[in-house]
Amino acid sequence: MRRQWYRLDNAALIFPAVMRRNWNNVFRVSVTLKEQVDPAVLNRAIGDLRTRFPTIFVKLRKGFFWYYLETVDQAPEAEQDYAWPLTPMTQKALRKCCVRILYYENRIAAEFFHSVTDGTGGMVFLKNLAARYLTLKEGVEIPAEGDLVRPEEEPKAEETRDCFQLCGAKKTVSRAEENAYRLRGNPEEDRFLTIVTGILPAERLLEKAHAQQVTVTAYLAAVLAEAVLERQREEPGSHRRRHIKITIPVNLRRIFGLNTFRNFTLAVNIGFDPALGEYTHEEICRLMYHQLAAETIRQRMAGRVTANVDPQRNLFLRLIPLPFKTMVMRLVYYFSGESKGCLNLSNMGELRLPETMAPYVERFDFIIGVQYSYPNNCSVVTWQGKTYISMIRGIRDSELERLFFSRLVEEGIPVEIESNGR
Asked: 241 pLDDT exceeds 80?
């Protein structure tokens, strides 16, 4: 396969600009099989998918005006899972490949530098990797349906396109909004990331959400907001109440009917101002639901896309050398990015696999990393009747996840807890 290069999609531009020596935006998807992983077969499966997923197997390159992605000559070999999930990818590692494949006992994991793809694209790749592995290992016939593709086929043009360029509006939607309360704490000395996963019965969670006449995402955002509000109240000087806002990454594929294996997600912030008074659980649920519904209608999302894409098209900005662009993007990110929310809640939704493949799979996990100024984050995925909620933190303070999962139990939802805490 000849070497190819890709411009960073609109969502991807910010990640090389804001990365630091010991931090960059990485996320993880993993699948746990019912039998131990054979690394030799896994490496064959990775090699078989290299040309089918050219925008996944890429390295980060630095040009005079922009960063860009270039296909790798050889697929990376799977490594045994080490340390803890989501250790930062060094700039040296990113110049070799922006994805790493890991295995441990029954688990296969893929970790991505966020410039490559979003959670949906990453999960599509993982499903195909697991399908190819099971075909080679078990000889099982897995049809190319749903998210699964045929490894021998040529990549489709729609899979590699930057869809942000296709769905803008004629007018932009303003980014102006109030700053939010910031979660803080003492960082781990060695940048250890603690992950606490709550396993919930999906049907019970859905019942509770429907009882409030809201979606599961809005319901979880409401419970998470209550936990953040309680966390704010516990701090010294809590008389100064700041906005409580949960950042929700929105999958634009569903809204615009477009498909790509690259980034196609835009975040919205939903929440409330506690200085206005006390809110009941029911009121917070309704606020979260209606705000999310209003912010994610097609027209407003198109306006948000335009607000992000227009500067990228500006001729003057395009001709500015990369170091100056990086400085500007860092400032924009600082003033209009993470300062507007408390933490992310990213819900992958319910996953499905072909009937011939599903019996080999025990579970899925989805973990987003901490961000530069978000020491906590939350991600969700559902598989075969169980919802897996992963709370990640880079600080020692475990109060937020305790408040969150305790509140779910108070609501009548049983929660089984797992943790990599030490």
From this structure: yes
- 28 in helix, strand or coil? strand
Nearest 10 degrees: Cα torsion 280, 281, 285, 287: 20
The confidence score (pLDDT) of residue 83 equals 74
Residues 6+ positions from 275 with CB-CB distance below 8 Å: 241
- Separation between Cα atoms, residue 62 and residue 43, nearest integer Å: 29
* pLDDT reading at 322 higher than 90: no
pTM score, two decimals? 0.95
Cβ contact 97:31 at 8 Å = no
Q: Could you give the CA distance from residue 181 to residue 241 in angstroms, rounded to a whole number?
A: 8
Extract the runs of DSSP E, i.e. beta strands, from 290-374. Answer: 343-350, 361-368
Strand partners, 390: 197, 379
Instruction: Evaluate whether 160 touches 85 at the Cβ level (below 8 Å).
Output: no
Q: Tokens in use for 28?
A: 């993880």
Which distant-in-sequence residues (6+ apart) come within 8 Å of 329 by Cβ?
13, 14, 17, 18
Structure-token match 């919802």, residue found: 387
Domains of the chain with CATH codes: 5-149 (3.30.559.10), 169-419 (3.30.559.10)
Where do runs of H (alpha helix) occur along 155-197? none
The string of pLDDT tens digits covering residues 71-108 is 999 999 999 997 778 988 988 999 999 999 999 999 99
Residues in the chain: 422
Amino acid at the residue 177:
E
